[in-house]
Amino acid sequence: MRNYQTLTLIGGILTILIVLSVGLIMGVLVGVHEAFGNFTTQYGSQGTVNQYYKDRASMNNGLIFVSAAIPVAVIVSIAAITLVFVIKDKLNVLGIILIVLGVITVISVSAFGILGLALFVAAGVIALRAKPVQVNELPGSTS
Asked: Is the residue at 137 inside a domain?
């Protein structure tokens, strides 16, 4: 396995794990906030109830963002992992694709995609500089 393939594989897997764990954590936090919000709305003052509704709207907006960004990051990571093992001859094209996929990853999940961006861009630069592997025929074989 070549260096750019290894970097892409590590970057893709880590990106998928990071965005899925962020989505899980956000879901748990929203659930906990909803559970304790019931106590706030029943026993809290008007100021704490208003603050609860503001926080609830903010957390729901964050959850909507994460639920839209997770599929994009997962699809981009799977595409990068697949392409790096499918495209063997046109390494310049592969390098550019990897850099673009890294930028798409960081745009879709913002700060949670920085690791994916770094590894995809590094893999893209290595792929741009790499030379295609020449397959030599075995001596004595006929084609």
From this structure: no
pTM as predicted: 0.81
What is the SS3 assignment for 71? Answer: helix
List Cα–Cα distances, 6 to 55, 95, 97, in angstroms: 42, 14, 16
Token representation of residue 70: 């997770």
Cα 19 to Cα 71: distance, rounded to the nearest angstrom: 9
Count of beta carbons in the 10 Å neighbourhood of residue 74 = 19
Domain count across the chain: 1
**Domain around 47:** 3-129
| Residues 6 or more apart in contact with residue 57 via CB below 8 angstroms | none
| Token pair for 138 | 């075995």
- For 123-136, how does the pLDDT look when each residue is reduced to its tens digit (9 = 90+)? 999 999 988 777 66
Q: How far apart are CA 9 and CA 14, in angstroms?
A: 9
